[in-house]
Amino acid sequence: MTNARRMALAAGLAALAAAGLACAQASPLAVTSSATGGTTTWSVPVQTLLIFTALSFLPAVLLLMTAFTRIVIVLSLLRHALGTQTTPPNQVIIGLSLFLTFFVMSPVADRIAEDAWKPYNEGKIQMEEALKRGEAPLKAFMLKQVRENDLALFAKLAKTPADTKAADMPFRVVVPAFVTSELKTAFQIGFMVFVPFLVIDLVVASVLMSMGMMMVSPVLVSLPFKLMLFVLADGWNLLIGSLAASFAT
After folding, report:
1. pTM confidence score
2. d(C-alpha 16, C-alpha 8), whole Å
């Protein structure tokens, strides 16, 4: 490489570095710090970027930190207990689970909006304080549903101090303990849902075998009886009401 090319390349790199420095100094994404109280003020573009980044974690929050897990598992087990492979379809189960989740979590959402969002929107508190206020109602909801042995297990795995109170546990301990407890509760409710339909399957299979109709599928014969039992017992009302009431404290 000739000296002229080297000088041109060096000049180009220097120009790019200077332009980048100038853009960084004049960028609206700059973060300003205040010496008074040691607070940090984020610019509006940075706040918008952080909000949209947080929205990408919304599905995980919906699945792991709300009532959605318990509801969708119970409804899926109900479909298997009835013997209807694709009825109700997955879209209906997910949609019903979402709306039931919104219904159950509405008191928590109201508290978050009142304690965190409104003061932040009015400029009374900073984003960090809004996040701290917003996580308190959600953590309180999870702690009311979590089992003590599950919380103790993950607290032990995280090596938190033994004298740490449940309300002071970090989210990395509360969230997996809550999910584990929700799975246990959902399977317990699913077992109670399965029992009456399992009895119908056993009775139908015994009757068909005693009649020598071994070539007839017991599932096909028992399905109308299970549907009739579920409808006559007002099963949707009982199940949805029980699911919503299971989160009451």
Report:
1. 0.73
2. 12
